[in-house]
Specification:
By secondary structure, the protein is α/β, with parallel strands linked by helices. It has 2 domains: 2-141 and 212-278, Alpha/Beta hydrolase fold, catalytic domain (Rossmann fold), CATH 3.40.50; 142-209, no CATH class. It is 39% helix and 19% strand. The protein has helices spanning 49-56, 85-98, 111-122, 147-159, 164-169, 172-180, 185-190, 197-208, 216-220, 239-248, 264-278; strands at residues 2-4, 13-15, 20-23, 26-33, 37-42, 62-67, 104-109, 127-133, 225-230, 252-256. The strands form 2 sheets. The protein has an 8-stranded mixed sheet, sandwiched between helices. It has a two-stranded antiparallel ribbon with strand order 1-2. The chain starts with a strand and ends in a 5-residue tail after the last helix. Residues 1-15 have low confidence and may be disordered.
């Protein structure tokens, strides 16, 4: 299969395998590209594996593996109750086992970061390094930074998809974000126009109400060398949370990225360059 990513700097065409594997009666869509150090890198909520590819697919000497989480991309939905970090983490580990990967580098963006934290806390012997970009969860469920996701879920459950975006734009939270982080709003509002938005947010709300780990102490016990990255003007992924996570993990470093919602290409190029440098030494 051939795929082109973003325009400009990212206008590259790559050959890779994008098959499916079956686990728990779901056909999961995944990508397996390149040769070298194995890395599993995971996308954020509402995205798909192409988002992860923006960071990892061009790095030489890496076997890049990603997947569409359940209810994302080309992977089907399952019951809303299945949208929990432990279940998502088990899906990733089932893919690793399917591919015969005993140890690997691991990371992700937003939701992918949270799933990675769940995996490394439960299977530390399997994970060699971590890359965590724009984390949105630590040890608490329903955190303040996820308020906008909760509001969108509430609007959809009360009023359905028709007019949901208008109601969101009329909310006090929208007005606040329009002052504090206006660049993020179009991306957030756009989630309301995605196909089957009501079904999506019914399931996604369960992730907002979950947490990847059960305590700060669990985070402090993660020993893997870790790169944590965050940026300003990103209310769902506050830079303060990224800095806090880097401080809690005993072998972590922090890197500030250019703002995602100011210039996405610059943001992803900076992430790619920093990740490439971080993973260059052999495991």
């Amino acid at each position: 299969m051939r795929s082109a990513f973003l325009s400009g700097r990212f206008a590259t065409t790559t050959n890779y395998s994008m098959p499916f594997f079956k686990s728990n009666n779901i056909n999961f869509h995944y990508q397996d590209q390149g040769e070298g150090k194995p890395w599993i890198f995971l996308h954020g909520m509402g995205a798909d594996l192409n988002q992860a590819a923006l960071v990892f697919s061009r790095i030489e000497g890496v076997r890049f593996i990603s997947m569409d989480f359940r209810g994302h991309g080309k992977t089907a939905f399952s019951a809303p109750g299945d949208f929990q970090f432990k279940r998502f983490a088990d899906d990733v580990m089932n893919l690793a086992d399917h591919l015969g990967m005993k140890q690997f580098g691991l990371g992700g963006i937003s939701l992918g970061s949270a799933v990675s934290l769940n995996i490394v806390s439960r299977f530390p012997e399997r994970v060699r390094q971590l890359v965590l970009i724009r984390p949105a969860w630590l040890d608490k469920a329903n955190a303040d930074n996820l308020e906008v996701s909760s509001l969108i879920g509430s609007i959809l459950s009360q009023f359905g998809e028709a007019g949901a975006e208008t109601r969101f734009r009329q909310s006090n939270l929208f007005q606040k974000l329009n002052v504090d982080a206006p660049g993020s709003l179009e991306s957030i509002a756009g989630q309301l126009s995605r196909p089957y938005a009501s079904v999506s947010f019914s399931a996604f709300s369960n992730l907002v109400l979950d947490s990847p780990v059960d305590s700060i102490e669990t985070l402090k016990n993660i020993q893997q060398e870790t790169l944590v990255m965050g940026n300003y003007q990103d209310p769902i992924h506050p830079i303060g949370m990224a800095r806090q996570l880097a401080e809690l993990l005993p072998n972590a470093s922090f890197y500030q990225l250019p703002e995602r919602y100011v210039d996405a290409e610059v943001h992803y190029e900076a992430a790619y360059q920093r990740v490439k440098k971080f993973i260059a030494p052999p495991f």
